[in-house]
Amino acid sequence: MIDASKLYYNRYGKNSDLDLSQVDISPLLKSILSRASVRKFLKKPITKEILTLLLASAQSAPSKSNLQQYSILVIQDTSIKTEISNLIGNTKWALTAPVFLLFLADIRRNIKISNDRGYKHKNNNVDTFMNGVIDAALSMQSMIISSEAMGLGVCPISMIRNIIQEVKFICNLPKGVFPIAGLAVGWPDQKAPVSLRLPQDIVTHFDTYKEDNLDQKINEYDERVFKIAPILKEKQRHVDLYGVAQKGTWSENISRQLSVPERENFKKWLKGHGINLE
Ligand SMILES: Cc1cc2nc3c(=O)[nH]c(=O)nc-3n(C[C@H](O)[C@H](O)[C@H](O)COP(=O)(O)O)c2cc1C
Fold first, then answer.
1. Tens digit of pLDDT for each residue in 245-264?
2. How far is the CA of 156 from the centre of ligand 1 (A)?
3. What percent of the chain has pLDDT over 70?
4. Helix 250-258 to helix 214-228 angle, to the nearest 10 degrees?
5. Residues 87-114, mean pLDDT to the nearest whole number
6. Each residue of 36-62: b (16+ CB within 10 Å) or e?
7. Residue 29 above 90 pLDDT?
8. How many helices (H) and strands (E) does the chain have?
9. Which of 83, 94, 215, 261 is most buried, taking the most CB atoms under 10 A from its CB?
10. Which of 37, 39, 144, 198 to mutate to test the pocket of ligand 1 (most atoms within 8 A of CB)?
11. 32 in contact with ligand 1, CB cutoff 6 A
């Protein structure tokens, strides 16, 4: 039997108050609890049959009103991969995966369907933007879960949004269609470490939202992360602005990251690309 208490420990760096060792969990739950992003891939292809089933799993995700406001772009062509690889800086490794996908929020298709049927589409707004992003994200997550359950490794890639204008041209993305993230998928060539998550008593709230003892709980989480995987200077954010942090903790690093605006022009870009955010 799979020992779920160990999987819990590995995810949080501490034991649960409950005895989880006797819970009979499925191999799928084991795969989800022990997952980690993979950034090194074997030069081994993914068969068309497997890819087809993984894409079906992506489309099996729930979708707001079954509006299915997303698309998936499968990039296998070497020249397109090279073009993106040349633009994406030190995320080049992602394009070495046998399959590189773009998960796209897609409000275009339903506008066209409505117009073709003589209706005026009156929902190009922030709610539809959000629904499209959620649909795309859920389908990506389904793809992640099913890929990992098949022994593949994956890594989502938001860096793709740093080169969104270039990707738009390379991949011929029409107005109303934009990538929420890329996803590198391949057979793993590394055993990626499980990264610790915030404890459940920070992230999960029962009945009402509470922030009791947040500082103390964050400090304790920082200590657990620091013990297992301290954030070394090469991985620390904005060392150029703030110097090397004496203690490479999670909270220090995310605070530094969030102190510098990322993708400031994204809203403007979306508006110019047919996404109305009113
Ligand atoms: C939307 C999204 C975008 C991401 N973009 C990148 C990326 O551009 N480069 C990268 O190396 N990892 C990226 N990641 C992976 C995260 O860094 C990773 O999930 C996080 O550090 C937790 O590690 P784990 O997935 O191994 O548990 C992304 C993850 C998500 C969900």
1. 999 999 999 999 999 999 99
2. 5
3. 100
4. 110
5. 97
6. bebbebeeeebeeebbeebbebbeebe
7. yes
8. 12, 4
9. 94
10. 37
11. no
**Which structure tokens are listed for 214?**
């947040």
Tokens 């990264």 correspond to 195
> Cβ neighbours of residue 51 under 8 Å, at least 6 residues apart?
74, 99
The answer to pTM > 0.70 is yes
Digit-coded pLDDT (tens) for 109-168: 999 999 999 999 999 999 999 999 999 999 999 999 999 999 999 999 999 999 999 999
Are 73 and 99 within 8 A, CB to CB?
no
Question: Position 3: which residue type?
Answer: D
Q: What pLDDT is recorded for position 241? A: 96
pLDDT at 76: 85
**How far is 61 from 63, CA to CA, in rounded Å?**
6
Nearest 10 degrees: CA dihedral of 231, 237, 238, 242? Answer: -40
How far is the centre of ligand 1, averaged over its atoms, from the C-alpha of 121 (Å)?
35
Spacing, Cα 157 to ligand 1 middle (Å): 6
Hey, CA dihedral for 135, 146, 56, 38, is it positive or negative?
positive
What tokens does 86 get?
């040349």
Q: How far is the CA of 112 from the centre of ligand 1 (A)?
A: 33
Q: Which structure tokens are listed for 85?
A: 């690889």
Both tokens assigned to 206? 């029962």
Residues 6+ positions from 228 with CB-CB distance below 8 Å: 13, 196
